Structures
1.
Amino acid sequence: MRTLRPLLITLLLVFGFYAVTNRMAQSAGRPGWPFHGLMTNASLNGRAVPAGSIGITQAEAAPAYDQEELENINVYKRGMPSVVNITSTAVGFDFFYGSVPQQGQGSGFVLDKEGHILTNYHVIADARRVEVTMHDKRRYPATIVASDKGHDLAVLQIKNAVDLQPAVLADSRNLVVGQKVYAIGNPFGLSGTMTRGIISSIRSIRGPTGTPIEDAIQTDAAINPGNSGGPLLNSRGEVIGITSLIAQNGADQSSGIGFAIPVNTAKAVLDDFQRYGRVRRPSLGIASLPIGPDLAQQMGLAVDSGVLVQRIVPGGAAERAGLHGGTEKAYLGNTPIMLGGDLIVAIDGQQIANTQDISQMLNGHRAGDTVTVTIYRGRKRMDIRLTLGEAGDVQA
């Protein structure tokens, strides 16, 4: 009897708990225990659900977009028809030195109704075959009609394509930090992808081939492998740059720091292609650093603004003219720089305060033109006659 007492007490407690919870559930209009809180597909099959037991909130039939969303949509609608995906096939070699096709992907955009397409040089470098896919999935074989490794640009052409929509090219001279930008391209093979950000900075950097990109547009818009060669657009859907590379820091994906070639550089290169059949962009033959009042004071310079010559290209225009590069290594944050070089303050009497001023000056000249470069060498002001060189594949 003693052994049965605990068992009887346990059964009474279980029965009492079942009775209480079942009554509470029924009074609340819910299924009784053991179904309370456990509704499986099996328990629903073959059993009608009471009307009104599931409530949903319907969205409006016609969604209303705010002004920012409308701007995003309009930029995409305007820019997307001009954007293409580019697949390049090169030949590599396996472990046994057998030839193996290797494919790369990038982006580009339509320039005209004749089927010319602008992209990055590194997208089609060493390619044996190039194919272009339009926004509507039409595919065309493409030929490389012009390339400029020094500026990381190339022009392709497709034949017999209809209903092409050329991109609208803006002016990149007066871009400002904080301006909204949009990138459309083919990141990781995901065609028709648009990302948005702002202009984070305008600076000179080294491109994928090691050559400099003057006045590169730095942006936090997500740029990933496959975006190269695609357009960077302003809020009107006009091209202001050609997306080219990302700051990787060991990761082959967006780090929030991407760069684009300014569209005015591309315009000048395209003009050379049309005039001469090759690029004859003028060059000073220097690596430079813009100087503002704070840096000028720290460095003890004679004036508070200008462009500091860090390095001279061997055999270039600056070396032939006798300009001096830096001799002392220092760091600006984590960036190594060279101090002690000439400080350029004017060219042909026009004040030079940054690298954008130099780029605008070069856009008005041709290789072979002679200009007067005003510099400070230490505390001494000097005028030096310089014959502009031709931007080649190896620059500072």
2.
Amino acid sequence: MTRLASAKILLIIGGGIAAYKALELIRRLKDAGAAVEVVMTEAAKHFITPLSAASLSANPVREALFSLDDEARMGHIELSRSSDLIVVAPATADLIARMANGLANDLATTTLLATDKRVLLAPAMNVRMWLAAPTRRNVATLAGDGALFVGPDEGAMACGEFGPGRMAEPAAIVDAIHKALTPPKPNLAGRHVVVTSGPTIEPIDPVRFLSNRSSGRQGHAIAAAALDAGAKVTLISGPVAIEDPKGARVIHVETAAQMMSAAEGALPADIFVAAAAVSDWRIAAPRGAKIKKKAGAAAPHLALVENPDILRAIASRAKDRPKIVIGFAAETENTVENAKKKLGAKGCDFVVANNVAEGRGIFGGADNEVALVSVADVQHWPRMSKEEVARKLIAVCAGLSDSSP
């Protein structure tokens, strides 16, 4: 339940015998790491006590719309918007009816009307009330407005009748909360994504070469995330010690020139992510035989020439330029400032900037901490796994791809 580990849940408890299950729901949410605020209707207090809910949630229960104390500490407007999700359990026929008709005559309905967050309802009522035409209309109205539902289950009622109307069990509600908090999976079906990854190596002689510390973990994670989103993926990889993502077309290269050729050959593409750490220079004239050290002789002079700029070449293409071109900037100082300069110089759409200074554990490590830089803004992402960075980046790409004409 990783999505619940830092989630803020506002639980509204309606008045019905199923309210006792709300206490178990609070316990399960707290065990999963969520923070829980509770609002109780007046009717709910006939079935469970505010003290029970407060003890389990470790927060004071909100009860009255016109409480000077509650409004001073957290007004109903802030309460309605400070959570990640509002859960109504049990959602009685009365609460559902008032929600569907926009009433705001107590703290619960006022909070629900004022919220800009998603609402998940767990209905609980007599079977005849659940099947009644007004309830069916109210449920349809709320569903049309974007409300989510879990249950009701079918079974014996407290009143002795049998049928649909029992509130879903707390475990099922927790599962529904987790699903509601999980962002929709990015969809890149039918799109071609090209990713460069890893280092390049530039030979000095048959034994030695110029290279860098890139492990390829971030680029390979991006390729895997694009595959998971349904894209056709071409991965152009320098020498790395990690496995190729299954399902990708992988082109193994060594030098920057080879990577350039492979990148141009992989076009057309919808998205191009230049995650590879390409060597900026190569040896002008690599030796055909190993350079031997001779006693008393001066160190050999190694003349360098600039390598092709793959990112700028792809981003500046007049024909078959990918709609989204993303570069990476591995910096050791002035990370965002240098990334902004790179964005302008290369002509790409985004630059993913990270600080790879010694001691940060980024090069070769499992985590990354990046800023996503565009002309419009800078998004600072907290430190997270490289797989999570990849998923977030692909989600951005999917959102932009969906908006294409």
3.
Amino acid sequence: MPNRKKSLIAKKTPPASSLCEETTPYRVNGSVTPHAYRFIDLFCGIGGFRFAFEKAGGKCVFSSDWNKYSRQTYAENFGEEPHGDIHSIAVADIPQHDVLCAGFPCQPFSIAGVSKKLSLGRAHGFDDKEQGNLFFTLAEIINVHRPAAFVLENVKNLTSHDKGNTFRVIRDTLTNALGYTLYTKVIDARSVVPQHRERIFLVGFKEARHFDFPVYPAEGPKLESILDANVPDKYTLTDHLWKYLQDYAAKHKAAGNGFGFGLVTGKDVSRTLSARYYKDGSEILISQGPRKNPRRLTPRECARLMGYPKDFKIPVSDMQAYKQFGNSVVVPVVERIAQAVVETLQRPVNFRPDLVLYDRKSQKQIPSATVNERLVKYTIPTKRKKS
């Protein structure tokens, strides 16, 4: 790992791409022109990043994912199949691009992934031979192609994994080794979809640009906004599975653990949808009243829960669909980030926003005209501590 990181310090000039006819970046005076920037979609899954960045005016020039079922769903919705394993293509052959997007595999760093690997005596984090070092593959691509910006996504636990050492290596690689200005934020998707889903986003700029993460609504939708009125009986839990989940929850509750199923109604917000949802659906069970066992979400409901468009095509089995949506980004979250990144790239490099004043008590913005008219206690807002 140290040798790989050290090799990133020497910057390289990217050669012309053999995979894309157009290799000249769309730039004017150092800034990306509106509705003309190019992006690549790495570890693309089923295209959550692509939906978001195309909506912000971008053109996808390359995509890649190792999973054949995800490539099938991606191809069905975008008309082109992504390349396979990122290691099967030379870094120099990836087309030049303005923005690199990647939801790099989270299993080596997620709470559930780490717990499972520990129970099996397997390595996790950077020591995971299959997925742990994929971050350094991303770093190599960034180093060679020097995009104007990148947007990376991972689980919240990335910041605390290995007592914070994992995140320190990632931050040091992106900033010190690669020279990018980095902004990070954990965002809960419950403001735009009815799901409690915290993910960390890392946004970097080659030039030292000012960037603000978008503001999300304080209150989001409830599950009733994504649920179907008529659902086939096959999604209702069998008596055997429902009894097993209740007994399992009771056993762990008695032991003082927090494990158990998540039973919700249309008035609630769900737990995080995971890639293991196909196994028993325990994290999100929809109540069907006292006289009927609860049910799983359907794949179409999962698509809505992740913010995918109404006409999104699901050509795979239910099991594969659950895995795909559980591994996906939440599209409306990324849409706002994509728009903010594009707007940042369109501004002059030396752009700095006007100072915005907020009332200390109400945390509401103070109109500039009133500041000199009355005595006001104000402050620049800081991240609130959780109570």
